[in-house]
Amino acid sequence: MEPSMHSGATPIHYRLSLARPAAHVFQIRCTIAEPAAEGQRLRLPAWIPGSYMIRDFARNIISIRACNDEGAVALHRVDKSTWQCAPCAGPLYVDYEVYAWDLSVRAAHFDQTHAYFNGASLFLAAVGQEARPCELTIPRPEHAPMRDWQVATSLDAGEDTPRHGFGSWRAPDYDALIDHPFEIGALTLAEFEVAGVPHEIALYGRHEADMTRLVDDLQRICTTHVEMFGELPPMSRYVFLVMAVGEGYGGLEHRSSCSLLCSREDLPHPADEGVTEKYRGFLGLCSHEYFHTWNIKRIKPEVFMPYRLERETHTTLLWAFEGITSYYDDLGLLRSGLIPLESYLELLGQTVTRVMRGPGRFRQSIAESSFDAWTRFYKQDENAANAIVSYYAKGALVALALDLRLRRDSGGRASLDDLMRRLWQEYGRPGIGLPEGRIEAIAGELAGRDMQDFFAAFVYGHEDPPLGELLAELGIVAQQRARSDLQDKGGKPAEDPLVVDLAAVLRDCDQGLRIQSVTEDGPAQQAGLSAGDLILAIDGLRTDCRRLASLLRRRRPGDSLEVHYFRRDELFQTTVVLAAAPRDTWYFRVDEHADAAARARLAAWRGEPA
Ligand SMILES: [Zn+2]
Question: Measured in angstroms, how far is the CA atom of residue 105 from the centroid of ligand 1?
């Protein structure tokens, strides 16, 4: 960011009132000292950085009016996100209400238990004055229990504002104002230090989390990423804002904080032994969002500098920001010693399985998936697995393949770590946008040979990265089998895999089995079954996932099943001719007999001292 041109100017001021929790309404007064001479325009972002979908936050503004010290100022709509005020003398006051009832990390949620918000969904920008500093005031609510609430945010507080208290906060510009979410409520707070910078966990929700353990584990993850990049970007503090609920999952990165939504079961319990599968998932999410502190919050696509939040911004590079981050999130758990290699390989096997089960990867490259994120990855329908590829999941596999190729081609002198450090030093640290094509060039320099073929095949093309071959050089053996049941996610060996399969994703429901999706040209689709159909009976008997799996273990390719099903309210009958279950389920194991060179390569990759 350039130093603000208006750093000495009067800030745009926002006053946020928490007076109406039961209505889930934030009341906001925006004060603009010097409104534009031709009349001030006001605009709310249509999307929030990190989540590439048009959300039109302005639809939650349920009332708005403007005035100055002389009286009312006329205000009219320009488009779905923009208002135009009549020319008037300053200061201009804009009073508006925002409905906040979205329990996700992307918008705002407000009730009698807490207030969570992203500025992008609440604070109108004074168009043309975005470079001015901004000030936010949140007065202490009058009534209990809200008056005892604590405030957690990474935004810098004013001098008179106690830590975790109500008061005022300052941002150097509008872009910064909306990049520091707030969590306000009866919070569980814990602090630790990484690279000399205070780090904090602020946890909202009913929970029984082992905070000591959480602090220790997060500190290890953060330290691992800081050591890889060589430094933490300059910041006064970093905050993990966590909302623990019954069922929920999500994360969103910010410049010096992240918002996480999890199930309270995902948090470590004092009685837990080892890292449970759910806690491993939570740690992976924390690791992911923290890695973004470098990779997308500072190393950014050129087209995101600056963000244009009124419309979609397309880039083919999301695979590098989400895929590479997804690679390092679990690798960070391994490198920081929180999970053993077997556990990491299980996660890797699950990712490979997820990618390999999607025929959409032959239709869409991860560069195309990045470009189309707005209308395809973020708007997935029942045909997604046949039509698109995830730039997260396949991106993570391409990142692993790139890491192993760099290590091989450079004779062990370079790796993806070096590439990430180059990106940080050359783009992230100085704040220069990353152009398309630059990653390929740096990879070529590090490998000592042209790498265009690699990117043409796996990033811009539809080929699967050769993970089996590359991992073999580390003494890791890739294995494939058929699924063992209808919920099988892969990552582990199985004793009793299915012999035949329907090639459909099914879910138990009250009346039978609901089809979630069907694989193109598989037995279910060939028999005329579709996503949404409700299977009532197979071979004349009521069924569920468990009974169907045991049936599929006893049948042979070419056998058939009689299926009764509802499509909407119409009853149909069809015959499914079963095909051999594909060997699309992957797992990995360490080769006990790998030679010393392979063992050394494995140790170097997982960050063990040579
Ligand atoms: Zn991410």
Answer: 12
